[in-house]
Design goal:
The protein has about 400 residues and is an alpha+beta fold. About 30% of the residues lie in helices and about 30% in strands. Helix 1 crosses helix 11, helix 3 crosses helix 4 and helix 5 packs across helix 6. It starts with a strand and ends with a strand.
């Protein structure tokens, strides 16, 4: 029986665990939240941070694992790469992961290799004077981000110097290494492009593009949902595909899933914001499977167990219109009740509620403050866009 170690056992990380369980594989989970549902599906579970790579390596060796995987989160990918290399298992090269996972490394690599020139600077937590001096020399607005966080944690837009201090402190608070990046703001044409793809032998084997949806409020920069397919033209999206393949192959990310965030500028050129060396969160691979019949969940598990695995795209379809939505609150409080309008309820094909009555709720300023997720199916792009444009009016969250 094959043994596979999963780093992360949160609700949104259960799809590959469920697949592995159904296949009869022996499942081992590492996660420092003992009540996370993935642990309940496992044959063995360990209450340990997924960033403690040497401790996890010992667990992996003791259990004689055949593969290791993380899903939907950047934080564990360094550990996966490290352990895969130590044990000669299937996995991305650690150097490629380190570039993709660190915003400063990524921007530096792109600039150095003339793949995407962009103005930015990196600072540590002892650089308050340097940061203030830098902001006085650059054109505002600027984007500020922790170099090593995901899910929009600590990300904000500096539009004037008066509000810079709090945003700088917020970015540092979300960085494990206490480093931040400040970069030039790029205006986007239309929706931000999101989605997941698959690299195979250094080539782009598959990608599915959607549109990311954001609130028009600087307090809430995390995307609240994705709609598939993207509104952008095939010509524009082909440019995105070509650029993604060039960047990933140059970095050395040869095989495996990736998550993408891309802006289209006013010259119709793609600007790559981030590429995550793992599947997307918010049940994006589930929505993509429903839409295209390409199963990136299965593929990620099987690649972890077999270096020679090839993604099956022979049954690829373009089936209907799908969307993911992160149920969220704009306010802090204690959860009482969730009500979904009948119009929206009819469109739901999967519903996951993370929050329970009387639990604390935080404002949706980062992805892990979501209260749940729904996947929706629509008959047409018009219906999808119409309903999604007013989706917050169709969901009521009662707090006290």
């Amino acid at each position: 029986m094959k043994k596979i170690l999963f780093l992360g056992a949160a609700e949104f990380q259960t799809p590959p665990i469920i697949y592995a369980k159904n296949k009869g594989y022996q499942i081992i989970t590492c996660d420092n939240q003992p009540n996370n549902p993935g642990h309940k599906l496992a044959n063995k579970s360990y209450n340990i941070s997924t960033t403690h790579k040497d401790e996890i390596l010992k667990i992996a060796i003791d259990n004689k694992i055949d593969g290791i995987l993380t899903y939907g989160s950047d934080i564990s990918t360094n550990s996966v790469g490290y352990i895969a290399k130590k044990m000669n298992l299937s996995g991305a090269e650690i150097q490629a992961i380190k570039i993709l996972n660190n915003k400063s490394n990524f921007r530096s690599f792109l600039n150095k290799n003339k793949l995407q020139k962009h103005e930015f600077s990196t600072f540590n937590h002892n650089s308050s004077k340097e940061i203030n001096d830098y902001l006085k020399t650059v054109e505002l607005p600027q984007i500020i981000k922790p170099t090593d966080a995901s899910g929009s944690k600590g990300v904000s837009v500096i539009r004037n110097l008066n509000d810079a201090k709090n945003k700088i402190e917020s970015a540092f608070s979300e960085s494990a290494s206490k480093t931040i990046i400040i970069e030039k703001f790029i205006s986007k044409k239309g929706s931000q492009v999101c989605g997941d793809g698959w690299m195979e032998n250094g080539k782009l084997k598959f990608v599915c593009y959607g549109d990311g949806h954001f609130y028009n409020n600087s307090k809430f920069l995390a995307p609240f949902g994705e709609t598939f397919p993207s509104k952008h033209s095939e010509k524009t999206l082909l440019k995105v595909s070509n650029k993604l393949e060039e960047i990933l192959s140059t970095i050395g990310y040869i095989n495996g899933p990736f998550n993408l965030d891309v802006i289209i500028d006013y010259q119709n050129n793609p600007f790559i914001i981030e590429i995550g060396p793992r599947n997307g969160g918010n049940y994006i691979p589930t929505a993509i499977k429903l839409k295209t019949n390409v199963d990136l969940i299965t593929a990620s598990v099987e690649l972890a167990l077999n270096k020679d695995f090839n993604l099956d795209v022979s049954k690829k379809t373009n089936n209907s219109f799908f969307a993911c939505y992160m149920i969220n609150s704009k306010e802090k409080g204690i959860f009482e009740k969730l009500t979904i309008d009948k119009l929206l309820e009819k469109k739901i094909v999967q519903k996951k509620i993370y929050i329970k009555k009387h639990q604390s709720v935080l404002p949706f300023n980062k992805a892990n403050n979501a209260l749940g997720n729904i996947i929706l199916k629509f008959k047409s792009k018009t219906e999808m866009n119409t309903i999604f444009s007013k989706i917050d009016e169709l969901i009521t969250i009662k707090l006290k």
